[in-house]
Amino acid sequence: MFGIPGGQFLAMYDAIYRWGREKGINTILFRHEQAAAHAADAYTRVSNKPGVCFGTVGPGALHLVPGIGTAWSDNIPVIAIVPQVNSKYEDSFTLQGNLDQITMFKPITKYQKSVRKIIDIPNAVQKCFREATGGRPRPVLLEIYEDAFLAELEEEKIPILTPNRYRAHSKVAIDGDLIKESIDLLLNARKPLIISGGGVSRAEAWIELQTLADYLQIPVITTFMGIGTISNNSKCFIGSSLADNVVLQAAGGADVILALGCKFSYTMGYGIEPFWKNTQKLIHVDIDPTMIGRSKPITLGIVGDCKSYLSQMLDELKKGKKIEQRDWLNRLNKKEQKNIANINKKVSNEEKPIASARMVKEIYEFMDEDAILIIDGGEIEAFALEQISIHKPRAPLSTLIAAGMGHLGVTIPYGIGAKLAKPDKQVVSISGDGAFMFNIQDLETAVRLGLKNLIYVVANNNSFGSMKSIQKLSNKKRYIDVDFSGINYAKCAEGFGCYGEVVSDPNELKPALERAKNSGKPAVIDVIVKLETHDITKLLISVSL
Predict the structure, then answer these.
(1) Which CATH architecture is the domain 2-166 placed in?
(2) Strand pairing class (79-84; 28-29)
(3) pLDDT digits over 123-166, tens only?
(4) Which fold has domain 347-544?
(5) What is the pLDDT of residues 314-351, one digit of tens each?
(6) What's this model's pTM, rounded to 2 decimal places?
(7) What number of helices (H) and strands (E) belong to the chain?
(8) What architecture is the 176-334 domain classified under in CATH?
(9) How far apart are the first and last CA of the chain?
(10) What Rg value do the Cα atoms of the chain yield, rounded?
């Protein structure tokens, strides 16, 4: 449970101290509630189990909002707990009171529950977990009045149910006719394409996806939330970002698209031309019916869980003949090999300040095979995503990006949450210098927890790079509020008790990363990079204008 104590719910802390720790319940003290919410979000993404965060009444609840909003945008089932002032003070302008927290959280939570009586707490907790994890997963809010925290029970015991007693774990089957229609569309396509989104990640349907793609010889691209759902080593895998030229070609060239648990958001070019074609046939599968046909017209809309859908597709396909190698897939594979060769040429330069693409290459080559990767920032995100398909394979649930909200500042708390979820894994974060400063205070949390092999790499171009790029391209270099005074992030990190090092030579980056890995501390590598604008940024700006 990630958060900061507050007077109105110290009774909860005391209960954890006296009893909860024996049952495996632990609190993780953060230095800011926003970071605590981000950490719960990361814990959920990596473990695929709901994380819990909390803040005290009033200001603590207000500080949770950015982290909960980010989880909401990416469909992450985080449980947020906040106390409310004692009922006898609720209209008396008491300290931190008079804030309608339920209304405040309504736009960024799937469900909100307020509890005034102690006897109602167990049922409220069950309801929150059921709502967060059922259907389209999203955060929920549980507000508990101080009255309930301080009350005494008349009953000797309140029944506490295990998850299988109060929420369903089985998935609804897809109508058989829809399965057959899907197969007919894909078999009759000349250039079919599969998009694997966050719905595949949450459903843990990556084995079924890989099997279906191999069986039908269909190329697969992923959204940011779907990275890792198909291996980089698979011949069917094409890429994970429109920053990849071959992904752009596949998106625009496909005649039939199977979209699995994905939104056609800005990261997927909004589903519109010039990235896609209006003539394409679309099979859209999603657990949430409101997502189907929302951005791009559909040929076939299917409401359901991606794992159920893919399993049923495979069962039906077993009755027919396996598809031979498609020429469409072969052509894309050849183009991808050329694309990789071009990228490798581009990222090998020795210039100083270090090119962002070279920095990314060095990090990816250094990382453990099963490392958890975090990407946080504006311009650096495009450079990181351009190469994410061409180095070591990404495992499922191991790539963390605040995709929907584009929220800056997740890097440090995401690293902590991911490390606590998977202590044996290396965690590496790539962020811009602007993003890194948003939650720098929680480097102290990482140090206090004694986290090792947790490495933060800061692309330091002394600016908000993406905003500066827009001002360069759209405002004729009329730069305003995008430049920094110059900060040594390694020295900052050392002040918190981390390992810190500044790197200005591209050939020194890998040795610095090795020293960080072996330091036995959370580490910050401050990399001096030049200010650059990625091609995908230019394209997105031109489309927006």
Answers:
(1) 3-Layer(aba) Sandwich (3.40)
(2) unpaired
(3) 999 999 999 999 999 999 999 999 999 988 876 677 788 888 88
(4) Rossmann fold (3.40.50)
(5) 999 988 766 766 789 999 999 888 888 888 888 888 89
(6) 0.93
(7) 22, 18
(8) 3-Layer(aba) Sandwich (3.40)
(9) 44
(10) 24
